[in-house]
């Protein structure tokens, strides 16, 4: 069966510090991978999605970046965090098809920037 | 860009009542999906309805889709306290085969025992 792991679950970082959130998927190959951010009490904002190794689509210009160094690994990074980067970050994967099917989400990483 | 918009933003009902949530979207789609999120957790997929379908059932869930109005509704029948959660609709883009899925702002459902 397929599983998705996302870590760390919680982190508190000072403004200007770097960030690395990691997501790995097991039990499937060549998945679509996604990073979403959710502000408190709000919907999900799509940040990045990837249909293959090294293929990253950015949806929102910001100081975040994403990388996919391996087929089932998706990393969200920042060189210098801003206060506005605080939020709940969710990684997800889906099966590659001609259309976007069901997304399977990780348990999220809650980031607080102070 | 925002694709799905849900209403109401919040809904409070008694156990046993039905809950209806609506979603509107802007572009042509291949499918529309509904997800549930318990507080502080990841989202869980509930149901997917294709653009050529008008209604779909899964247990106590009933989803309708009206592509002419670009809208969908999620009905939860005989609600339970355990149904308390946020519910989101999500749509793809029929003209973008790149796997993108856009979520709405969600409806926060509270079911009181």
Commentary on this structure:
The complex is a heterodimer of chains A (114) and B (113). In chain A, the strands form two sheets. In chain A, strands 2, 4, 5, 6, 9, 10 and 11 form a seven-stranded mixed sheet that branches. Chain A contains no helices and eleven strands. With 114 residues, chain A is mostly beta strands. The mean pLDDT of chain A is 93. Helices cover 0% and strands 57% of the residues of chain A. By secondary structure, chain B is an all-beta fold. Chain B is built from no helices and eleven strands. Chain B has strands at 5-7, 10-14, 19-24, 31-37, 43-50, 55-58, 61-66, 71-76, 85-91, 102-103, 107-112. In chain B, the strands form two sheets. In chain B, strands 2, 4, 5, 9, 10 and 11 form a six-stranded mixed sheet that branches. In chain B, β4 and β5 (43-50) form a beta hairpin. Chain B is globular. The mean pLDDT of chain B is 92. The chains are: A mainly beta (114), B mainly beta (113).
Which keywords apply here?
heterodimer; A: 114 residues; mainly beta; four-stranded antiparallel sheet; 11 strands; B: six-stranded mixed sheet; five-stranded antiparallel sheet; globular
**Helix-strand category of chain B:** mainly beta
Structural class of chain A: mainly beta
What is the multimeric organization of the chains shown?
heterodimer
The tally of helices of chain B reads 0
Q: What composes the largest sheet of chain B?
A: 6 strands, mixed
Radius of gyration of chain A: 13 Å
N-to-C SSE series of chain A? EEEEEEEEEEE
Low-confidence stretches of chain B: none
Q: Helical segment tally of chain A?
A: 0
Number of strands of chain B: 11
SSE string of chain B, helix = H, strand = E?
EEEEEEEEEEE
| pLDDT < 50 runs, ≥5 residues of chain A | none
Work out the helicity level of chain B.
Answer: under 10%
Overall spatial form of chain B: globular
**Counted beta strands of chain A:** 11
